[in-house]
Design brief:
Helix 1 (about 35-40) runs parallel beside helix 5 and helix 2 crosses helix 6. The protein is an alpha+beta fold. Strand 11 and strand 12 (about 195) form a beta hairpin. The strands form 4 sheets. Strands 2, 3, 4, 9, 11 and 12 form a 6-stranded mixed sheet that branches. The chain has a two-stranded antiparallel ribbon with strand order 1-10. The protein is built from 7 helices and 12 strands. The radius of gyration is 17 Å and the shape is globular. The chain has one domain (about 5-45, about 65-220). The protein has helices at about 35-40, 45-55, 90-105, 160-170, 210-220, 225-240, 250; strands at about 5, 65, 75, 80-85, 110, 115, 125-130, 135, 140-145, 185, 185-190, 195.
């Protein structure tokens, strides 16, 4: 996977997962998002994501395949995608864009907020979504997320014991370099695929307004947007394997070469 890792650690603060979306207060540094632009990010067509992914643009990476025999990870009877990140982390900020693009093809988000990465880290003040306080509804996938810290590195959410066990077991070699064990973002896809780094680095969105970044990353006419869309296309291809080709309206558009695509070869 590409360079660009932040270190994660467990914090002892209960998650807000059981709290109604409307009742979850904004964490420091979060802000409301314009609905039309959220819809713009969510509505990038599957055909566009797939077309960009087929080009395999330089500087983008699919997920890694987990080792043979890794048990499936499900929640609520559905394959579960787990995201562990933090709002201060610029690489987490990058990765949320393709995650929202891809997951929106299989379900719907409610309560997505805006956030920016740390102003003192690399790629300072990178605009992104935050999954804190949001909800995801899908017939096909479960999505579990924890934003462990705010953009000022204040404790926010803790992984559940089950989620932390995944981090401990899989956010390490051979999936991430020995020097970056425990890196974030950590994305675990139902026991079949894994990300221990961002898939792409858009570069120019640091210090942009959220609205400007949303337009930039969905325009399809610059390097950053093409990389974001390709990254989302890789995720869609993997998610279609997890859901056994459902919904058909989405997965029928994914060519065989992208079904189960990984950093090596497609999974048979």
């Amino acid at each position: 996977m590409m360079a660009g890792l932040s270190t994660s650690f467990t914090v002892a603060v209960p998650t807000a997962a059981a709290t109604a979306v409307a009742q979850v207060k904004f964490a420091p540094g979060e802000f409301a998002l314009p609905a039309k632009l959220v819809s713009r990010v969510e509505a990038v067509p599957v055909a566009t994501l797939v077309a960009q992914a087929e080009k395999r643009p330089s500087g983008t990476n699919p997920a890694q395949a987990t080792a043979a025999g890794t048990p499936a990870f499900n929640q609520g009877g559905r394959p579960a995608v787990v995201f562990i990140g933090a709002e201060y982390c610029p690489y987490c900020a990058f990765e949320r864009w393709p995650l929202v693009m891809a997951l929106s093809k299989f379900g719907t988000f409610e309560g997505l907020r805006g956030s920016t990465s740390s102003a003192t880290d690399v790629d300072p003040s990178t605009p992104s979504f935050s999954f804190f306080g949001s909800a995801y509804t899908s017939k096909y996938l479960s999505f579990l997320s924890d934003e462990t810290e705010t953009n000022a590195e204040q404790a926010l959410q803790s992984p559940t014991a089950e989620e932390q066990a995944l981090v401990t077991k899989y956010d390490t070699t051979p999936y991430t370099p020995a020097a970056a064990v425990g890196a974030i973002p950590f994305v675990y896809m139902a026991g079949k695929y894994i990300l221990t780094a961002t898939q792409f680095i858009p570069g120019r969105i640091a210090r942009m307004t959220w609205a400007a970044a949303a337009v930039y990353l969905t325009s399809g006419n610059n390097t950053g947007s093409k990389a974001a869309e390709a990254s989302a296309g890789y995720l869609v291809g993997d998610m279609c394997v997890l859901t056994h080709g459902r919904p058909v309206s989405v997965c029928s558009q994914v060519p065989a070469a992208l079904l189960g695509i990984t950093t090596a070869l497609p999974v048979n």
